[in-house]
Specification:
- The structure is a single chain.
- The chain has six helices and seven strands.
- With 211 residues, the protein is an alpha/beta fold.
- It has one domain: Rossmann fold (3-Layer(aba) Sandwich).
- It has a seven-stranded mixed β-sheet with strand order 3-2-1-4-5-7-6, with helices on both faces.
- β6 and β7 form a beta hairpin.
- The longest helix has 19 residues.
Length: 211
């Protein structure tokens, strides 16, 4: 079995375990993204995960685990780093407008190259601090880049009235819940089972509090 075949098998098994049905070209495109990330990582230090198999688990499957909670037409991925979870979500469920936001210039250069190489339609990358981004989004994703209080403090203005904020965390952040700012409410906390990952993963779903 070649290395590529092994990665493909790992990814396909993970997608099946998550119960997802993806477009026919999604697996190939996800593997193209992983290969691009691996290639750029040497020079740009985009992620601490070096092992390709670990990348499948910790980056691709971890991102895809939240797909059932994603909604709406406009999505912003805040503190996206090398495009996580935004790029896997764009490949798995095309047709949305997706804005990838990161303040790190190297990471944004990689994102622009990935968007071009993978021909990701409707996806754009912006180098910016979260609090300086403008617009309204039906869905906002954020992968453990700050506490719930800070995330919403910096980026809460971006959430459309009926939108959902998907905060990806390790263990359930019970200690952070009292810090959720006024005007926002926790709609649910979901334990995520990421295939092949022993560590805890949870998703906090937030929305605007109804007045």
């Amino acid at each position: 079995m070649t290395a590529h075949t092994a990665l493909q098998a790992r990814l396909e098994q993970g997608i099946a375990a998550l119960g997802l049905s993806l477009p026919t070209d999604a697996v190939a495109r996800l593997l193209d993204y992983q290969a691009l990330l691996e290639r750029w990582n040497g020079a740009y230090n985009l992620t601490a995960v070096r092992d390709p198999v670990e990348m499948i688990t910790r980056h691709l499957l971890d991102s895809l685990a939240i797909l059932p909670f994603v909604q709406g037409q406009r999505l912003a991925d805040l503190g996206t780093g090398p495009g996580l979870p935004g790029i896997p979500l764009a490949i798995a469920a095309p047709g949305r407008e997706i804005l990838l936001v990161d303040s790190n210039g190297k990471k944004v250069r990689f994102l622009r190259e990935a968007i071009r190489t993978l021909k990701l339609e409707g996806v754009r990358a912006m180098q910016s601090r979260v609090e300086e981004v403008e617009g309204q989004f039906d869905c906002i994703t954020a992968r453990a880049f700050a506490s719930l209080a800070d995330m919403l403090g910096w980026g809460g203005h971006l959430l459309a009235p009926g939108g959902v904020w998907l905060a990806m965390k390790g263990k359930a952040p019970d200690d952070e819940l009292p810090g959720v700012p006024a005007g926002f409410t926790v709609r649910g906390i979901h334990a995520l089972a990421v295939p092949g990952l022993a560590a805890e993963r949870s998703l906090v779903v937030l929305g605007r509090a109804s007045s």
